[in-house]
């Protein structure tokens, strides 16, 4: 009984809220720890993939979630700051998945905005590490946000989107895949 009381007191002191299911991210197109399929690989810069944005589905968002954001990032890119492959924000809170190819087919949920990638355009830009590099890691993350909308245009670069997303995150879930050539 004392342990339960102490835990409840600690939760109230440190601002913890009622427990919620752990947020999870799944994908029919991405298998955690495995190599990315050619469908999600960039078509350009020496790569010849199909550049199709992956299907993503999530569950377990915390109470108070007002919108979602999805970001794809390569921390191994030889830039000194990684490489942003995709950012989608202002995804309505009622949404729990994005279909495969939604970026290219413009089938994202109503109101969702795609920021600029490090390829210099909005929309999904698949994996394309330099030839000969060890396989890079690609982190796909969905963020549950405490705001309805981020005050950003579709020209916002990944780092700026990341700043606003992290400042408003309630919870997140990720899948990490690899790709090398």
UniProtKB/TrEMBL annotation:
Pfam family, any one: PBP
PANTHER family: PEBP (PHOSPHATIDYLETHANOLAMINE-BINDING PROTEIN) FAMILY PROTEIN, UNCHARACTERIZED PROTEIN YBCL-RELATED
The UniProt record lists the keyword Signal: yes
InterPro entries: PEBP (IPR008914), PEBP-like_sf (IPR036610), YbhB_YbcL/LppC-like (IPR005247)
SUPFAM superfamilies registered for this protein in UniProt: PEBP-like
The protein's name: Phosphatidylethanolamine-binding protein
Signal peptide start-end: 1-21
Iron among keywords: no
Organism: Rhizobium esperanzae
Keyword terms of this UniProt record: Signal
